[in-house]
């Protein structure tokens, strides 16, 4: 029983330290930009619901979508505005950042859940 509990703690610790480790290899400009996406797309791009998950998204697909939003070629509700403020270099850096983020269910207190607020 105790061993099972220790294993669970280890699994949880490892799972949640990975995003922090991954973040270290990106510039502060990129992590700051990515933090602005977290308001809607969740921590490290793991959506809390209502928006697409960006974590572990394919690099090329991410760039294609962002350029499409920026040019207006892809219909969107809010992403046109966000994409318009980004340079090609920033989109490429964000694509690499989100591609490197592991997918997981974000740990949130129930009262912080989007579903609870609706
Ligand atoms: C105000 C909320 C909001 C913010 C902030 C936001 N997004 Fe989005 N994002 C959305 C919504 C909603 C969609 C679905 C398309 C739409 O309706 O605009 C989306 C779609 C996307 C997609 C397409 C995903 C797919 O699977 O097709 C990408 C890529 C994306 N966002 C990247 C970003 C990045 C990078 C940032 C930060 C620079 C960001 N978003 C900030 C709300 C947001």
UniProtKB/TrEMBL annotation:
Origin superkingdom: Bacteria
SUPFAM superfamilies: Cytochrome c (SSF46626)
InterPro entries membership: Cyt_c-like_dom, Cyt_c-like_dom_sf, Cytochrome_c_Oxidase_Subunit
Alphabetic keyword roster: Electron transport, Heme, Iron, Metal-binding, Signal, Transport
Domain Cytochrome c: from-to ranges: 17-102
Signal peptide: 1-22
Pfam family, one: Cytochrome_CBB3
Protein's name in the database: C-type cytochrome
Species this chain originates from: Methylophilus flavus
């Amino acid at each position: 029983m105790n061993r099972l509990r220790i294993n669970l703690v280890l699994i949880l610790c490892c799972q949640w330290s990975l995003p922090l480790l991954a973040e270290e290899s990106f510039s502060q400009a990129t992590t700051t930009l990515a933090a602005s996406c977290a308001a809607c797309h969740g921590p490290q791009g793991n959506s809390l619901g209502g928006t697409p998950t960006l974590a572990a998204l394919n690099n090329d697909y991410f760039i294609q979508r962002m350029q499409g939003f920026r040019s207006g070629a892809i219909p969107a509700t809010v992403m046109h505005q966000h994409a318009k403020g980004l340079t090609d270099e920033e989109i490429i850096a964000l694509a690499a950042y989100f591609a490197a983020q592991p997918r997981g269910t974000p740990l949130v207190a129930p009262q912080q859940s989007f579903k609870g607020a609706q």
